[in-house]
Amino acid sequence: MPAGDPSAPAAHAGHAPARVDKEHSVRVELGARSYDILIGEGLIDRAGTEVAARLPGARVLVVTDERVAKLHLGRLEIALSGAGIASSTLVLPAGETTKSFAHLERSVDAILEARLERGDAVVALGGGVIGDLAGFASAVAKRGMGFVQVPTTLLAQVDSSVGGKTGINTPRGKNLVGAFHQPALVLSDVATLDTLSPREFAAGYAEVVKYGLIDRPDFFDFLEKNRAAIFAGGPERAEAIRISCEAKAAVVAADEEEHGARALLNLGHTFGHALERAVGYDAARLVHGEGVSIGMALAHRFSVKLGLATGQDAGRVAAHLRAAGLPTEISAIPGPAIGRETLMEAIAQDKKVSRGRLTFILTRGIGRSFLAGGVDPAEVEGFLDEELSQ
Ligand SMILES: NC(=O)c1ccc[n+]([C@@H]2O[C@H](COP(=O)([O-])OP(=O)(O)OC[C@H]3O[C@@H](n4cnc5c(N)ncnc54)[C@H](O)[C@@H]3O)[C@@H](O)[C@H]2O)c1
Ligand SMILES: O=C(O)C(=O)C[C@@H](O)[C@H](O)[C@H](O)COP(=O)(O)O
Ligand SMILES: [Zn+2]
């Protein structure tokens, strides 16, 4: 259940992480816009040479948040200047509420103030909030300029830094304003995860589990066997990041702008995004990965209710998420109770709604998720009433 300050630093699981002896590289195949995802220890120190190799001559604006700036910005700035890259920096407040029009305006203004040209680049150093916001700023400033992701949360390393979805929230819903804009490089320094709070590490793990639940049952088995090692920072952590990136890269390569199969990556998000909006994006109550965890548990239980999946599979999924310290019930969210109408209103704004009809990602079992269009709102309401009465 969500509890405590999501940004309180602590070494998760209290273990000294084993060093990863191997780097991984995953390619996102998008023709002329293909790019590498580099995964390994200490990669931030190589950021200057890796950026210069892909964007020769570019100057950069680094966008980060206050927490990440204190922990990891210095090394990035040294790496950039060491490679002869001129940089300026914008430091924004940490947290989901930074994905706003106000901070988009600040970010674009910083790009213009630095007199960056279209061939220059924005470098996002941080979690998914900074990646989504800075990526969107780089998509709209000068109608699109260079963009590099240096993700520092597990969630960003396995999901948000890959695939080019950028955007901001509005009070009416999550990510309702945005653009597809692919990075030129994703540089995932897994050592940055050592400073992440246990709560934020667990939140990112929900998106890792998601890939197993979509269509990789073997990966779900791997996660069941290796969860403790992943949380302790062993080599299995980088392995799980690599497999997650491979899974996402394959989906994105097949359907970059979500005309079909990419929507499977939204497993758990129809409910999850509605919950995030319902709490006003208040991280003290719920962060994105926790919303996805509850949403995936709900999607499995909803599938059981519709006669599609077995209670045994839904139970196995919820048990794994709970063992990782993640919430699986709406009632686990602290604070005032959330009403069915609030959730239905948010669900009606979901971007997968087509001609007024709801689309959910449902499942026939672990690793057997599918897109279900035309879901009856009355079925959803009945299901939510059951869930909210518990
Ligand atoms: N674009 C996509 O495809 C995509 C995919 C998944 C999620 N998202 C979005 O990503 C966002 C969530 O991202 P997130 O979970 O990374 O949240 P976040 O960016 O808010 O980061 C979580 C917290 O961790 C702190 N932090 C970041 N790196 C740290 C580090 N190395 N050490 C210590 N603290 C650190 C941040 O300051 C913040 O307080 C949501 O807005 C979600 O909608 C986007
Ligand atoms: O990359 C995708 O596609 C995803 O759906 C990944 C999700 O984990 C992520 O939260 C994404 O931002 C959701 O996108 P949205 O289109 O539902 O806003
Ligand atoms: Zn997500």
UniProtKB/TrEMBL annotation:
The keyword Manganese does not apply. Residues 90-202 form the 3-dehydroquinate synthase N-terminal domain. Residues 1-22 are annotated as: Disordered. Keywords: Amino-acid biosynthesis, Aromatic amino acid biosynthesis, Cobalt, Cytoplasm, Lyase, Metal-binding, NAD, Nucleotide-binding, Zinc. Binds 1 divalent metal cation per subunit. Can use either Co(2+) or Zn(2+). It comes from the Bacteria. Zn(2+) binds at E207, H269, H288. One of its GO terms (molecular function) is 3-dehydroquinate synthase activity. This is 3-dehydroquinate synthase. It comes from Jiella sonneratiae.
